[in-house]
Design brief:
Chain A is mainly α and 290 residues long. Chain A is built from eleven helices and five strands. Classes of the chains: A mainly alpha (290), B mainly alpha (379).
Chain lengths: 290, 379
């Protein structure tokens, strides 16, 4: 394993984290809540891919079905569990989100059992670049996720809906007065976030084929950490945090002495960054109003 | 004397009396040998769960900060207490070892509480929740990767099992101590300061409450008792394994606090007892894949309860149908559902401007804030 391979591996891992972190950060920016169940939407997407692969065998179709299903799931979760709590204390919303996360995990376990399912999405093999061996899936992951992130940035910046999203995240009340359908925007945000989670689930299965009901739990927490490191609510922040997280993880995993402590190192980085910059690297300082 | 006794608000001491009676009754039963070993084990588990729930409840229910790392504090207590007892047992004998390891486990956990309390001064809400979660995972990963000689690594640390007929009595007595500390704290001037931080931190600060001091105090006390619970756990089991203390366990404790009602110590006690009891009973009935039904049930209870208790849209429903008003119907001439609520009317004022925005003053929360001179900041 040389440095180049490690870095590329880290970038591909990081771009997956970044995709998940985008879901967290967009929902936080617009609904001002931590969607703790976001990681488990990845797992649901994974199971949809598994079901399609088992019946039809087409990974692209599987991805499409997973994206659509996850969008519907995200919208349902928002309508049923989070919408009644709009305006309630953030603590209540966070605890409900934890409840939803548990609900998804245990439902999946009830339906599919706790034994891991093997989902071989596609065997892409390796390419040789001189003396460097590159697994193709890292290139695919990296390429796709960068394309998605650029598309998302353009969408938010230049379309009407995207601008409405920015407006809602800045001031909900003022956005409503300007005729923006705030509830609709929140629903769209949840749909986009969940679709990104489905993509992330696809990339994770591409990397390692084992699928359990806790597939999304740890990556979810790490991506969440990445979003917080980058400054939650900031889209470039989530990308930066995700990539940083992936590269740190890849480097740490290649050094035998610290490899077992990888999780601890990542979480320590979070604590240190938050102590130095309490709103993350690219986060805006919010003024507290009395 | 009789007058003095009747002047005491017995309502405030019901929980001590109940726990004390349980301790005596079960203690006598176990000494006469009429308690099965599984019930003794259950009593130990219940005492540990009560201590965890009550200690988390002062952070979540009274200070209003979400801690997702309570299992981490317990983990510190369990490993350090367990290690101390394993080292000291051959030297000191049973009882002194227990006392020393309780003190060591509790104090080290409290030290970690201070360390986690420090970021709590700069961070709030969601950010603090993720830092506590991260802390719990760091602690767990440290103990999991420790060498076999130090903390047993992934196999777990072997700890001496205390005389099982009396451990639960000690645990229940410690629960009484925990209740005494937390209830006296909450009902004192300091407790009112803590709840005011929960309700509005800036307003609390403006009235001269030393927010720094109280946040640190609550985190320290809470983690101390979590550490004590961890030591008891290490005594009640033969091995301490790091997998037990994952963040799922923190959430399980959180479920107890939420189920019991945030800001209610008695509620936490009842919920902890109920959940631990159900857990143990269901474990024998629901085996294999059915065990997941239990998690499903907890998840649903958590969601439904939080929505019911907090949804702004359900406010009038909540006021008509709740435990108090249903009980109140039995009393003559008292109908709490008809009580006027001024707060609700403010919401119906058609302008979108909220009072707090009208009165807004820009305040830099991150600016270095120097609290009042020591001793003056409490009022």
């Amino acid at each position: 394993m040389n440095i180049f391979e490690t870095l590329l591996n880290g970038l591909s891992m990081g771009s997956t984290y970044a995709m998940i972190a985008l879901g967290y950060t967009m929902v936080y920016g617009i609904a001002k809540m931590l969607n703790f169940a976001h990681g488990d939407v990845i797992m649901v997407g994974g199971y949809m891919i598994f079901l399609t692969m088992a019946s039809v065998g087409n990974p692209i179709l599987g991805l499409a079905i997973a994206v659509v299903f996850c969008m519907l799931l995200g919208i349902t979760i928002e309508k049923v569990a989070y919408k009644p709590l709009r305006g309630a204390s953030p603590l209540a919303v966070l605890i409900t989100a934890i409840g939803v996360s548990y609900l998804l995990q245990s439902t999946a376990q009830m339906i599919f059992g706790s034994a891991p399912k093997m989902v071989i999405v596609a065997d892409l093999g390796n390419v040789m670049l001189g003396s460097i061996k590159l697994p193709v899936y890292t290139l695919v992951t990296l390429g796709c996720s960068f394309a998605i992130m650029i598309a998302l940035s353009l969408f938010v910046k230049y379309t009407k809906i995207g601008r409405a999203m920015i407006a809602v995240s800045e001031d909900k009340g003022a956005a409503q007065l300007m005729g923006i359908n705030v509830n609709g925007i929140i629903t769209i945000t949840f749909a986009i976030g969940s679709a990104l989670a489905a993509f992330a689930g696809f990339f994770m299965l591409l990397k390692s084929p084992s699928l359990t009901n806790t597939l999304g739990a740890m990556p979810g927490i790490k991506a969440f950490t990445a979003a917080v490191i980058g400054g939650i609510g900031s889209i470039p922040g989530a990308m930066l945090g995700g990539i940083l997280m992936g590269v740190v993880e890849a480097i740490s995993l290649t050094i035998p002495a610290i490899a077992p402590y990888t999780d601890a190192i990542e979480f320590s980085i979070l604590i240190i960054i938050l102590l130095v910059r309490p709103s993350g690297i690219l986060g805006k300082k919010r003024r507290e109003k009395v | 004397m009789a007058k003095a006794l009747s002047a005491i608000k017995w309502k405030h001491y019901v929980n001590y009396v109940v726990v004390a009676i349980c301790t005596v009754v079960f203690g006598v039963m176990s000494l006469t040998g009429s308690l099965s070993s599984s019930s003794i084990y259950m009593l130990e588990k219940i005492a540990i769960a009560i201590m965890l729930a009550v200690s988390l409840s002062i952070v979540v229910g009274f200070l209003g900060e979400l801690s997702l790392g309570h299992a981490g504090f317990m983990c510190v207590g369990a490993y350090l207490g367990g290690k101390t007892s394993a080292l000291l047992e051959p030297l000191l004998g049973d009882v002194p070892t227990l006392l020393v390891s309780l003190v060591v486990g509790g104090l080290v956990a409290a030290l970690f509480g201070v360390i986690i309390g420090l970021p709590a001064l700069r961070l709030r809400g969601d950010y603090l929740a993720i830092v506590t979660l991260a802390f719990g995972e760091i602690v767990r990963s440290f103990f999991m990767n420790s060498s076999d000689e130090s903390f047993g690594g992934s196999l777990g640390l072997n700890t001496p099992r205390y005389d099982k007929n009396t451990l639960f009595i000690i645990a229940l007595v410690l629960v009484l101590g925990c209740l005494a500390v937390t209830q006296n704290l909450i009902r004192s001037k300091h407790g009112r300061a803590i709840t005011s931080i929960r309700d509005n931190e800036i307003a609390a600060r403006a009235t001269g409450i030393n927010v720094t001091k109280y946040k640190l105090m609550v985190f320290t006390i809470s983690s101390f008792f979590a550490g004590i619970a961890g030591v008891l756990y290490s005594y009640s089991n033969f091995t301490v394994q790091s997998t037990k203390f994952s963040y799922n366990y923190s959430i399980e404790i959180l479920v107890m606090v939420v189920l019991g009602g945030m800001g209610s110590i008695n509620g936490s006690i009842i919920a902890a007892t109920l959940i631990t009891f159900l857990d143990m009973k269901l474990q024998t009935i629901l085996t294999g894949n059915l065990a997941v039904l239990q998690d499903l049930f907890y998840a649903l209870v958590l969601i439904v309860l939080v929505i019911y208790n907090n949804a702004p849209g359900l406010k009038s429903f909540r006021e008509t149908y709740n435990l108090k008003s249903l009980l109140g119907k039995f009393k003559k001439g008292h109908d709490p559902s008809k009580v006027h609520d001024d707060e609700a009317k403010w919401d119906r004022v058609p302008t979108k401007i909220k009072m707090d925005e009208v009165l807004s003053v820009d305040l830099q929360t991150n600016s270095p804030y120097t609290p009042d001179k020591p001793g003056k900041g409490d009022r």
